[in-house]
């Protein structure tokens, strides 16, 4: 075995990376740990995101690859995988390298020739595993420092609440000004006006609401001109409703209060969610239906992975990851058609959709195509209406229906059943046009109350996946 603790110390970019890697040495956080028996190891590590990071290491030359967006090389996940291997206290299952490992092996360069010389000062200051125990003991023996840190966090929360309240007041006045000027020409001034308000909301620590406002101009220009005033009215009404709900949060039911705080930009950490005894958890086999990837105005990539629990009573969930643009090679970990054997923990909401993987027991390709039977479109819309009544700022809602046909009328497309017709989003029309020739089909997509964005269809001609 070529890996050793001394080599890991030499590879670590700094002491903080070693400290972070040590926290990842628990096998419970690694749903996959495998080797090929010839010096190649790989694993999946459940990090702070919704989907696990994938790591591969070649033992001979300590080559590594991780899908996390860290700018440290090697990252803490790669160091932790090497550390567990070097320690020899964790079993690695024998297996065949999956496709993502083979893809990396095919692209990677060979081992570096030679190593740069390290001077004696750098050698003395290099990261040390032995020093970690001393650091941990010092932190544990300073309760006064822990108390000061907690008091500072409380002051920060109080200050942020004040800033958010001021930001909501500024937004209310801005919306009133827009209504006074009229929404007929709002689309023409939206780019500048929305950018100004979004910046004000960012300064007010209301990042979630800021993103909602900043994305509005692009959403409007994706619509036909005659539909923009109504879409603007709906978007501004939802933003106003979120603001008013936040100011009255103490009178809201617990789940709705938690939801509106998340809409405003308050985050719930993965650790807090998994430790919450009241959090809704569901175990089972989950099918990956679709993946979406978009860049937000705050320069974060928002990656959505939509899941459906396999069984007679399907349940939908979405895993959401945020990755800095240009933050390194990273992306969606799961592909449509894969099956996850996992327990999901849902973020508190009256309409629970967003989730984290609480326990992951493995991933495998599905043996058969997605099945959607006896789910009429009117029933799906009825479920959306119930969800909207529970969460008035609902946004995109998963809709799965059988016995649907896609029909065209001019350049517009519609999802049609015997009892209801839904317009298909104009941005999806070109990609979905072949479905007009497919006859009756099963359809999965996202419905926002105005248009349906199709993401997956099962037809008599085969499976269609949105590009």
What does this structure look like?
- This protein is α+β, with helices and mostly antiparallel strands.
- It has four domains: 136 residues, no CATH class; 118 residues, no CATH class; 98 residues, OB fold (Dihydrolipoamide Acetyltransferase, E2P), CATH 2.40.50; 89 residues.
- 39% of the residues lie in helices and 25% in strands.
- It is built from 15 helices and 16 strands.
- Strands 13-12-11-14-15-16 form a six-stranded antiparallel β-sheet, sandwiched between helices. It has a five-stranded mixed β-sheet with strand order 4-3-2-1-5, covered by helices on one side.
- Helix 11 packs across helix 12.
- The longest helix is centred in the middle third of the chain and has 39 residues.
- The radius of gyration is 25 Å and the shape is globular.
- The relative contact order is 0.08.
How would you briefly describe this protein structure?
The chain is 39% helix and 25% strand. It is an alpha+beta fold and 467 residues long.
């Amino acid at each position: 075995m070529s890996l050793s603790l001394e080599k890991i110390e030499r590879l670590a970019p700094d002491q903080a990376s070693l400290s972070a890697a040590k926290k990842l040495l628990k096998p419970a956080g690694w749903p996959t740990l495998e080797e090929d028996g010839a010096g190649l190891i790989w694993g999946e590590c459940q990090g702070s995101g919704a989907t696990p990071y994938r790591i591969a290491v070649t033992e001979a030359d300590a080559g590594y690859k991780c899908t996390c967006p860290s700018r440290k090389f090697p990252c803490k996940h790669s160091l932790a995988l090497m550390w567990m291997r070097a320690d020899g206290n964790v079993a690695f299952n024998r297996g065949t390298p999956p496709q993502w490992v083979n893809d990396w092996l095919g692209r990677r360069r060979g081992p570096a020739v030679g190593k740069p010389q390290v001077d004696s000062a750098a050698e003395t200051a290099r990261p040390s595993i032995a020093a970690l125990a001393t650091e941990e003991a010092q932190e544990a023996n300073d309760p006064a420092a822990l108390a000061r840190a907690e008091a500072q966090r409380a002051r920060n929360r109080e200050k942020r609440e004040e800033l958010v309240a001021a930001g909501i007041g500024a937004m209310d006045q801005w919306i009133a000004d827009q209504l006074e000027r009229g929404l007929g020409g709002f689309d023409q001034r939206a780019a500048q006006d929305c950018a100004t308000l979004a910046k004000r909301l960012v300064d007010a620590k209301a990042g979630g609401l800021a993103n909602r406002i900043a994305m509005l101009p692009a959403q409007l220009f994706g619509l036909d001109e005659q539909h923009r005033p109504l879409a603007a009215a709906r978007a501004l009404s939802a933003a106003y409703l979120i603001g008013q709900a936040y100011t009255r949060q103490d009178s809201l039911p617990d789940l709705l209060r938690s939801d509106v705080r998340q809409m405003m930009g308050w985050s719930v950490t993965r650790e807090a969610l998994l430790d919450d005894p009241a959090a809704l958890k569901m175990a089972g086999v989950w099918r990956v239906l679709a993946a979406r990837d978009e860049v937000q105005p705050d320069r974060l990539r928002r990656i959505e992975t939509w899941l459906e629990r396999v069984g007679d009573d399907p349940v939908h969930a979405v895993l959401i990851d945020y990755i800095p643009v240009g933050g390194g090679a990273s992306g969606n970990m799961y592909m449509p058609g894969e099956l996850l054997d996992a327990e999901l923990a849902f973020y508190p909401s009256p309409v629970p959709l967003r989730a984290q993987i609480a326990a992951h027991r493995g991933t495998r390709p599905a043996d058969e195509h997605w099945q959607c039977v006896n789910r009429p479109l009117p029933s799906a819309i009825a479920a959306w209406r119930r969800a909207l009544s529970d969460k008035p700022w609902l946004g995109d809602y998963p809709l799965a229906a059988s016995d649907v046909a896609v029909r065209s009328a001019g350049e517009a497309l519609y999802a049609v059943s015997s009892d209801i017709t839904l317009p298909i989003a104009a941005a999806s029309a070109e990609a979905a046009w072949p479905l007009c020739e497919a006859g009756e089909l099963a359809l999965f997509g996202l419905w926002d109350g105005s248009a349906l964005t199709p993401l997956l269809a099962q037809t008599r001609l085969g499976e269609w996946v949105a590009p």
